[in-house]
Amino acid sequence: MQSIVTTANVNGIRAAAKKGFLEWIDATESEVVCLQEVRAETDQFADVLARLDGWHAVWAPAAAKGRAGVAVLSRRAPEATRIGFGSAEFDVSGRYAELDLPGLTVASLYLPSGEVGTDRQDEKERFMAEFLVHLGELRARAAADGREVLVCGDWNIAHREADLRNWKANQKKAGFLPEERAWLSRVLDEHGYVDVLRQHHADVAEGPYSWWSYRGRAFDNDAGWRIDYQMATPGLAARCTAARVERAATHAERWSDHAPVTAVFDLGLGLD
């Protein structure tokens, strides 16, 4: 039995709802959908959720209005939900939420974007330091409980040259800094998470990308970044049979500057 999981930065769920997000989610076969940059108050998110049939949700709004916000939607009622990862600084920032399904923990992440030479980059680095510890602890707890883990979201880092069209011009910019890329390598190498989309596109020299600026003709020219990931524990990654970016056919059909990233799992973990 296959189970399908999608992650999508919606760039404001109310705006996305007006551009085609609701039609997309009505049509998707995904059983779990992770959302980032929801940018809505609790009542506003509830209004959108009320228009969706058959979904359960854990919702983590940001304390700062109009900022961040993440959610995990599941067709099956979760066994447990958690907001944040035990961070005094970041648990109210709307950047992380988890839910438990039988044998599986799914999380939605919106890692800060940063900006070199500013407080925003310092914030990003503090988040990364704390979150790396959480990723290790999360995997250890899951293994002790016989569970798998899937951390989905906008990681705001392009890991390899293949993940960024204009990588030579962006080596000193946030999102492709050597130290950021090294941190993401630690997620994979030290903590053993697997980038399931790259697992299925290992020989691709460019892309597939998941974010394109609204400026110029970035989308039409496929001058994008791959910053949206599904990171799985090895046992779950071994059950991933396919992964893809759901790139819109045309610029006009986009409901976000990001595209959904979808993975298919041969689970046997109780999602069916």
Automatic annotation (TrEMBL):
Catalytic residues in the record: Y110, D154 (proton donor/acceptor), H258 (proton acceptor)
UniProt-annotated site: Transition state stabilizer, residues: N156
Annotated cofactor note: Probably binds two magnesium or manganese ions per subunit.
Residues annotated for Mg(2+) binding in this entry: N9, E37, D154, N156, D257, H258
GO BP terms, alphabetized: DNA repair
Enzyme class, first EC level, given as a word: hydrolase
Swiss-Prot/TrEMBL keywords: Hydrolase, Magnesium, Manganese, Metal-binding
GO molecular function terms noted in the UniProt entry: double-stranded DNA 3'-5' DNA exonuclease activity; metal ion binding
Endonuclease/exonuclease/phosphatase domain span: 7-258
Protein name in the entry: Putative exodeoxyribonuclease
Gene source species: Kitasatospora setae (strain ATCC 33774 / DSM 43861 / JCM 3304 / KCC A-0304 / NBRC 14216 / KM-6054) (Streptomyces setae)
Gene from which this protein is expressed: exoA
